[in-house]
Every structure is written in structure tokens, then in C-alpha cells.
Design goal:
Number of helices: 12
Distance between the termini: 18 Å
Structural class: alpha+beta
Family: Belongs to the acetyltransferase Eis family.
CATH topology of the largest domain: Aminopeptidase
Strand content: 25-35%
Bound molecules: coenzyme A
Number of domains: 3
CATH class of the largest domain: Alpha Beta
InterPro entries: Acetyltransf_17, Acetyltransferase_Eis, Acyl_CoA_acyltransferase, Eis_dom, GNAT_dom, NAcTrfase_Eis, SCP2_sterol-bd_dom_sf
Largest sheet: 12 strands, mixed
CATH architecture of the largest domain: 3-Layer(aba) Sandwich
Pfam family, one: SCP2_2
GO molecular function, one term: aminoglycoside N-acetyltransferase activity
Protein name: UPF0256 protein
Order of helices and strands: HEHHEEEHEEEHHHEEEHEEHEEEEHHEH
Length: 439
């Protein structure tokens, strides 16, 4: 989807829901720097962050230029130019099983001021974002969440998990193969362009990754405020394959006290090939004068334990639902991914907000490709039919949750014997879904 997300008309339903409370719903112009600065201040306050410094506000302006940014304003407030609620959305691809991506809408920056909570502002904004997503032609909306109790009511469900991976340096003896290429130290600014190219390829390999990361690489590489304390700690290495092609990078820092060994910490290890992934892990776990390595938002299915003599050197903590997915258009969404096995399945989907409700037939051929059609009321039901809500559809969509698990939780009904087993095998993904960033 390459269009200006600001070209979509302002959602009239959200506008009138907020107007009933005397509030104004405004689409911001990213060139209106005063309004944008106030919005960025409000977003920081809403997330309980410190006030942004000038460099962070400037970075916020660049990020906002790639998004559709809304604020809610209270003309009666003491500071009417500061929004009492914020939200941002943008079109991006979401990688799905089989190596393709589906048109999606990312939702972010959902905050409501502590003075204005529990009067329906978040609901108006969230329903507004679903309308924006629909108008943008997105088959799916998605977000990452700080609290897991808020977004289910709008049809979102956890679809890809993430975890903190900790490696005990003393126990980490590498037994995996040495990669054929080389690891090089590269200054973060020099890596910026290559990092973006590697990221694009890495994202395509993993269901659950999204392909537009406004502003995130600059943050990861410490380029937003290069003179800041945190940024000066960032070290970056790049893996080049045996032909000299850059295939991966990691941005890490070593935290330590004087005279004590440190801990390697990283949020970004991005690999476009398996060799690159192994080489970068090996580089990290073989550091001297460190007690361990800690990587955040890693896959729950890392190959790392299989590369070390002692798999117990690796522990997973903070395993969380990370990516939440909301299906808007089942025909487009289901048609975009590949499936694990051929078969025919009818899905009867209930969606309280009506975007995805209806009966759909999924016919998967030998190569995992699907034909999906909406059934009208007169169509005869297939033997293999599942009844599920839009949340359950979002949960199984990327292959991270088995339909039979949701049936055991009484969240999917399968009237025909065998249909659950078929659904499990059809929805299985070739790679465990994973999202490696917050957005
Ligand atoms: C979470 C937040 C956005 C909710 O805003 P709000 O305007 O008070 O929410 P609404 O009044 O529109 O409530 C919508 C629904 O969410 C529920 N809800 C609101 N906040 C909730 C919370 N923290 N936990 C669980 N449910 C919540 C309401 O009960 C209501 O439910 P209903 O529609 O079923 O009756 C707001 O509290 C906030 O800004 N929190 C801090 C920032 C944050 O956590 N943002 C989320 C980032 S992922």
C-alpha cells in the first residue's frame, strides 16, 4: 500500500462520538510543528515517560511524517492546545506464513490523559483506527500492547509471542558450525543504510514481522541522540557472507560496574540468513569479561540452545503475547498466507463490530495456496466447518496458536469430527511467528 495515509477522510463516527463529550477529533498536519510538539508531549505523558528532550521531539516529527496522527482536544481544558488523547496509524506489510506479506494497518501511540479516562475516548479512537484501516484497504489491523486486557474487545488477539533470552556465559560452549563469512565492527551511522536493507530481507523470512519500522532503526543504532549516554554505549557489528554481502547485524551494549565483568544486552539482532543468525549469536556469547548475554523480544523458538553444548545455558523469561492481530477482511487475509496441508474448511466467523463476520470457504491446494470465498446464506455447509470469533481467527492466523488449543478453551466449535485436526495442520506455519520490535 503506497499512498498517503492522511488522504483518508476523518472517520465521522469517531468524530461524532467524541463531539458528544464536547471533544474535538483532529487529524494532525505533520508540518504544523507546534501542534505536533504538543501531541508528542501528550503521548510521552500518556505512557508515563519523562518529557521528551529536543532531539526526541525532532525525531518524533520525522516519525509522524510517515503516519496518520490523530489527537483529541478539550476546548475547556486549561491547556487546550495539548491533546487529551493520542493515536497514530500507518499502512505496512505484515509477513505471513509462506514468505509473502499482507496489507496491514499498524496502530500505535494509544493514550488517554489521566484527567479524561473512562468516558469512551479510547473506544472512539480504536474504532476510528479500524475504519482507517478498512478505508486504507488493509486486510488486518495490528498493534503491540502494554496491557493485555484492553484490545480484545475491538477484535484483536495475540498472534505472535516474544521472550527475553538469557545466556549464561560460563556454560555457553559453542558447538555449532562456524559461519563461512566474517563479523566486522561498523560504526552505527555507517551501518544505517545497510541495516535497512538487511531488515527488509529479514522481515520477509518470519511471519509476524512488519515491514515498515518508522524511526525504529535510528533509535536502535543510537542515531536519534548520538551524544546521549545510552547511544554512546551502542556497538554495532555486521555479518558479511563468504561473498562479502552484508547479511545481518546486531546493535548491543555492555553494561558493567568498575572491576566487574559486564552483561551483553541487545534488542536488535537482525539476520537475513541462518548463517548470519548463527555468526552473530556466536559473536555475542563468546565475549570475554562478561557473565552473560540478554536479548529482548527474541523468538520463543530460537535455534540457540541447539548451537551450545549445554542447552541449559539458555533461559527464556518474560514470554509475552507481543503482536496482536485483528482480521478485517477474511478473504484477503486468509488468501495471502500459505497453508500446511491441502483441504477444504468452512469458517463461520462472528465479529461484534461486523468487519469480518460471515461464512467463508477456504480451499487449499497441493502447494499450500488458498482460494477463499465468502459464502452466501444459501450455500450448503461443508462437512469440515469451524465456528469462531474474529479474535480466535486473529490468534490462529499466523500459525502461532493451534485451533485445537482454542477448541479446548471452548473458544472454537468444531461440529464435524476431524475438522480440528485438519485445521491444526492447515494453519501450521513453516516458521514460528515472531515480532522483534515494539511499534
Ligand atoms: C488504556 C487507555 C488508553 C484507556 O482509555 P479510556 O479512554 O479510559 O478507555 P475507554 O473509556 O474508551 O474504555 C474502553 C473500554 O476499555 C476498558 N478499559 C479501559 N482501560 C482499561 C485498562 N487499563 N484495562 C482494562 N480495560 C480497560 C473500559 O472499561 C471500556 O470497556 P467497555 O468498552 O467494555 O465498557 C488509557 O487508560 C491510557 O491511556 N492508559 C495509559 C497508556 C496505555 O496503557 N496505553 C495503551 C498502550 S498499549
Amino acid at each position: 500500500m503506497s499512498f498517503d495515509p492522511r488522504s483518508i477522510p476523518v472517520d465521522p463516527a469517531a468524530s461524532s462520538a467524541l463531539a458528544r463529550h464536547g471533544l474535538e477529533y483532529r487529524l494532525l498536519d505533520p508540518d504544523d510543528h507546534d501542534a505536533m510538539h504538543a501531541w508528542i508531549e501528550a503521548e510521552h505523558r500518556g505512557f508515563h515517560h519523562a518529557r521528551p528532550r529536543d532531539v526526541e521531539r525532532d525525531h518524533g516529527l520525522t516519525v509522524a511524517a510517515e503516519r496518520r496522527v490523530h489527537g483529541v482536544y478539550d476546548p475547556q481544558a486549561a491547556e487546550p492546545a495539548v491533546p487529551v488523547a493520542t493515536v497514530a496509524g500507518w499502512p505496512t506489510g505484515l509477513s505471513v506464513p509462506g514468505g509473502r506479506s499482507v496489507d496491514a494497518w499498524a496502530v500505535s501511540a494509544v493514550t488517554v490523559a489521566a484527567t479524561h479516562r473512562r468516558r469512551g475516548i479510547a473506544r472512539a479512537l480504536m474504532e476510528g483506527e479500524l475504519a482507517n484501516a478498512h478505508n486504507a484497504g488493509a486486510a488486518v489491523a495490528m498493534l503491540t500492547v502494554t496491557e493485555a486486557t484492553i484490545y480484545g474487545r475491538y477484535g484483536y488477539a495475540p498472534a505472535a509471542r516474544a521472550a527475553t533470552v538469557t545466556v549464561n556465559r560460563q556454560r555457553a560452549h559453542w558447538v555449532g558450525p562456524d559461519a563461512p563469512g566474517r563479523v566486522h565492527f561498523v560504526e552505527p551511522a555507517d551501518l544505517r543504510e545497510t541495516a535497512a536493507a538487511i531488515t527488509r530481507r529479514a522481515v520477509a523470512r518470519t511471519p509476524g514481522e512488519i515491514d515498515r519500522w518508522p524511526g525504529i532503526l535510528d533509535r536502535a543504532l543510537g542515531l536519534v541522540d548520538p551524544q546521549g549516554d545510552a547511544a554512546r554505549r551502542v556497538r554495532t557489528v555486521r555479518y558479511d557472507d563468504e561473498h562479502g554481502q552484508a547479511q545481518g547485524f546486531v546493535a548491543y551494549r555492555i553494561t558493567r560496574e568498575p572491576n566487574e565483568p559486564g552483561v551483553v544486552e541487545f534488542d536488535f539482532l537482525v539476520a537475513a540468513t541462518d548463517d548470519a543468525e548463527r555468526a552473530l549469536w556466536q559473536f555475542l556469547v563468546e565475549q570475554d569479561f562478561v557473565t552473560g548475554v540478554r536479548g529482548r523480544l527474541r523468538s520463543v523458538d530460537e535455534p540457540l540452545p541447539w548451537l551450545l553444548e549445554d542447552p541449559r545455558a539458555v533461559t527464556l523469561t518474560d514470554v509475552v503475547d507481543h503482536l496482536w492481530v485483528r482480521i478485517l477482511d477474511p478473504v484477503e487475509a486468509l488468501g495471502a498466507r500459505r497453508y500446511g496441508i491441502a483441504g477444504t474448511l468452512d469458517l463461520e466467523i462472528a465479529d461484534p463490530l461486523q468487519h469480518a463476520s460471515g461464512r467463508f470457504r477456504l480451499v487449499v491446494g497441493e502447494r499450500g495456496r488458498a482460494e477463499v470465498e465468502r459464502l452466501d446464506d444459501t450455500a450448503a455447509p461443508a462437512r469440515q466447518a469451524l465456528k469462531l470469533g474474529v479474535q480466535e481467527l486473529g490468534a490462529v492466523y499466523l500459525g502461532g496458536v493451534r485451533p485445537s488449543v482454542l477448541a479446548r478453551a471452548a473458544r472454537i466449535t468444531a461440529p464435524a469430527a476431524g475438522s480440528l485436526a485438519l485445521a491444526d495442520r492447515m494453519f501450521a506455519a513453516d516458521r514460528t511467528p515472531h515480532l522483534s520490535i515494539w511499534f
